[in-house]
Amino acid sequence: MRPNPPRMVTVVLAVALLVIGLAAIFYQGPAIDLIRGIGLPDDIERQVASLMGEQIAAWAALAAAPILLIIGSLVRDI
What is the rounded distance in angstroms from the CA atom of residue 5 to the CA atom of residue 44? Predict the structure, then answer.
């Protein structure tokens, strides 16, 4: 089996999941204030803030980042 390099979209999504997960675990309060100050649309801001407020979701985001890269390496066009 020869793994393929993951596509750039997959890498960017994995890095975003990693950053969101780390921020939710270590910097929950300041990170939520930062998300609210960026000026995202209300729906996206509410979803990201609720994701960061739940520890289970934070650990899931941390686990999903390397899993996404592994799947992107093994499955073509992901």
Answer: 30
